[in-house]
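fold-stage: in
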Amino acid sequence: MNDSPSFAAYLESPYRSLKHSSYFRVYDTLFGPYRGRAITFVEVGILGGGSLFMWRSFFGPQARIIGVDLNPNARKWEKDGFEIFIGSQSDTSFWQDFARKVGPVDILLDDGGHTYAQQIITVESMLDSIRDKGLLVVEDTHTSYLQGYGPEKFSFMRYSQNLIDRINRRSSLVSDSPAERRIWSVQCFESIVAFHINRPESAAPSVVTTNDKPGDDAQDFRHRERRDPRIVTVARPLVPLLRHLPGIRRAGRWLRNRAELRRFRIDRFFR
């Protein structure tokens, strides 16, 4: 990691900081484009204060570095030029007051208590305060697979998967439930989930387009390999009738899909 800017900044910090070794490349990838810019960066959970100095070194003197912690002792870092807010990240009223006082944020990094409630409430409370082209990043998401951070069915990674499902529902071909338009995309790394904010792109309608170039009248072979020749042979005389019955067509697709799942043992990827 000798060529990692974030790791170098981590080593330069004059106070103790704890980070997983796999995080530094992720920091470089996600936060690198913001270096040297006058951004507002918020870190939830500052413990011994070392990470505040790390981020100042990494982003540069133009950056506004803000720390959030439950421990009132963290206010001592204000003397070093950092803004410190004391409060609970699972308290929605705290976040409302924080957003009113701080204004728009470019990057929020959640390295707080890591419980599912804390992580989810932080995301839901601060999404609207992240600037376009900004990031809301939650780290230590491996707690979703550990005991003691909340009920498994409400884990942060399950919450993230739900958001991913709703992002994909922006497609014009899917319309049976509300779509997610606050988040443009979700990027997952080991123990880190990054939410990218781009409201114009998130709001733009997603429709099927064509480049209006000449076609070659190619046949659509997507579903040919899924046809069981035995079924086709038996059912061939009934095709003219069945093709006019939507319910029968849906049942046929369901049976083909089920057979395909069984044939390739897709269930082994969901254990």
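fold-stage: in (second)
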Amino acid sequence: MILIIDDDIAVRTSLLLLLKSEQYDVQAAATPVEALIIVKKERPQLVILDLNFSIDTSGEEGLDLLGRIRKIDAALPVILITGWGSIELAVQGMKLGASDFINKPWNNDHLLQSVKTLLSLKGAGKQKHTRRQLDSQYNFQHIIGHDEKMLAILETIGRVASTDASILIMGESGTGKELIAEAIHQNSKRRGKPFVKVNLGGIATSVFESEMFGHVRGAFTDARFDRAGRFELANKGTIFLDEIGDLDQGSQVKLLRVLQDRTYEVLGSSRTKMVDVRVVCATNKHLNEMVAKGSFREDLLYRINLITIYLPALRERSGDIPVLVNYFISNLKEIYNRPNLTITPAAMKWLQQLPLPGNIRQLKNIVERSVLVSKSDELDIDVISAQIEGTPVKKDSTRLPGVGDLTLEQMEVQMIRKAMEYHHNKIGKAARSLGLTRSSLYRRLDKYNIPYDETED
């Protein structure tokens, strides 16, 4: 049962009709006293609470009621209904344990999405699934690992992917945040729509509005043509805002508006546009510490983290290192046409003992560089350790360049070209051999201006 708490009969009636039309069991209360009686007696699954009551417009009565509800049932999800003028109160409510806040006038779809997500999470059992069971239910083919921490993350992704809940992915660099974001998209109802990745750390403040919201011709000196922004490109799909912790304060305010009410204005135009998009954010920074220092907006943090996923560092799941290494080697066998590539048990054990501050990305680069410089198809500690310590390794001059001769970007370009050539421009097969999704490979082909004439997979 869902409990609506609001002194305004019009609000109660609207929410009752909306939720009943979606086949939810709903009750309503007009006063805190009535609400507490229902909470104690009926034990609702979710509460929708207005912060302001007719006898008090400060919001304090609503916050007090929230605290009393949490004392009765600390696990009960609570959605706050608030106006723009009381966003600060909503943030206080989130600190007191509220799960989400919805602005007035609310968007029905947005409110229903929040309800569905919170009920889904509350109703999820504690049953643990094996990797095979998870793979039978969801599309996780590009995420490698069997560690319990990763399985718990995949369980969470599976449960929330079908909703439109905002998700914040946190973790060190190289832990696979983009792959997790793509898995969320691929397992959502938006899977057939665009997945647009934006590296916010790479967008200058001066062009933020143009990049994110687009511009019309003549909006500024070099605006010779109309240009669609990233949000417009992602409409009906998912937008992945990577490195959101790098966003400056001014840009945070502009981003907050579109996340709050799903509207924006194209630069140079006064016309307001609506956007229907799922938002997934990621960062390797500690946003709570940034909020405490005043460098990240608290209301923006609560807007993007209805669900927070913490990706463990590779050193925290070292048991997955052999699985990852064997996966990389399997792909490299195809790319370099070296079917006998193997790694010695001693080398594998040595890799598991490394701190690997660069996580999966660093491990992948170590294995790839080892294959490039090794004359033997059997990778041993000597060759692999040289890629960490920078020790020179004597290499066959007829083979590909060794360490120091290529940047990582040049190496990536070379591997993509080889994979495309080996698989005769079949994007799906080339992407799988590189450990990428199709969309990730398309982005890299465009980024590096690698020409291709796609053939049927």
